[in-house]
Amino acid sequence: MPRLETLGVHAGREDFGELGVHAPPLDLSTTYPVRDLAEGTTSFDALVGGAATAANPIYARLHNPTVARFENALAQLEGTTDAVAFGSGMAAMSACLLAAGQRGRHVLAVRPLYGTNDHLLNSGLLGITTRWVEPKGVAAAINADTALVIIETPANPTLDLIDIRAVVKAAGSVPVLVDSTFATPVLQQPAALGATLVLHSATKFLGGHGDVIAGVVACDAEWAAALRQVRAATGGLLHPLGAYLLHRGLQTLSLRVLKAQDNARKLSKLLAGHPAVAKVCYPGLGTVANAHLVDTQMHGPGSLMAFEMHGGHAAASAVMAAVRLATPAVSLGSVDTLIQHPAGLTHRVVDAATQAQHGITPGLLRLSVGIEHVDDLWADLGQALEAAQLSAAA
């Protein structure tokens, strides 16, 4: 089996020799000719029923070859048989919940999660009931109607880690979904640890350039069929241009993730030593829950961190206003560095009491480190921290 760096470059390109191309073809067709009605009818039934392919694609909501190549590549990177792509990470999560709803209406989830996932699970919009538990409480909370256990590791935004093997063991026969967006398959492969579903907001590291919104779920054939049925019925498909960009992004995924991680290791230490910073949450510093998993479950601490400002909300706001090289914006995993305020932005839809319980404080900033030169990044962050100090003293 080729190593991950090699798979990133070559996976999903198995038919290029037959096609006589070097770059991935971009198929923008919305519909496909049906000259043999019997074949078309059989193909339609297969695709609506969740099949990965059919003799005729029929209609782009049911199948697109550009999307399928990206799915194939991501499945190889995650070590699963299948993957199903969607128009956003939230569409992917929604599809997982709808597919799980055929098994039961009860879901267990561990906080913190990405704020909108938290909101969706708490809202009842999809007809499910969510019980929030600690990882050690999973086994006791399962009942006959429990359809899914949901965790995110590293967690958004605190970077706490959760032992995937332990949760899978506690869940027993109940499927476990792992949101692995922060780690990517470069640093973590949850399916090898027993997870049933591996979800990515592909908008982030998989795309890597801030120019595509997408989601993808790596899984086995049975779950993939159920997810494709949901996608076909609800229309949560990924546009082929997005799939093209994502497939291209996989070629440099390892390079980008490892370079950004190297920068983050250095920046985390510099931030931890700055007088304006109260604490830094980063797995590489050992300052998050279960940091030991960096050396076992993960292959490195990643490039995301959160840091708490002395001075609370005002200081955090001052830093976001003062950065010049880093971009004050939500999202993460891009080649450029992004900084944002979880309590005021990504996790604003989570109630204040829950935010406080899970360390999402008014002074917390989340930093997604990019691939710029680390000295330039520190010069920018350093001047922003000094600006915040001056603002507080004024």
TrEMBL record:
GO terms for molecular function: cystathionine gamma-lyase activity; pyridoxal phosphate binding. The keyword Lyase applies. It holds the Pfam family Cys_Met_Meta_PP. GO terms for biological process: cysteine biosynthetic process via cystathionine; transsulfuration. SUPFAM superfamilies: PLP-dependent transferases. Keywords: Lyase, Pyridoxal phosphate. Its cofactor is pyridoxal 5'-phosphate. One of its GO terms (cellular component) is cytoplasm. The modification N6-(pyridoxal phosphate)lysine is found at K204. Belongs to the trans-sulfuration enzymes family. This is Putative amino acid lyase. It comes from Rhodanobacter spathiphylli B39.
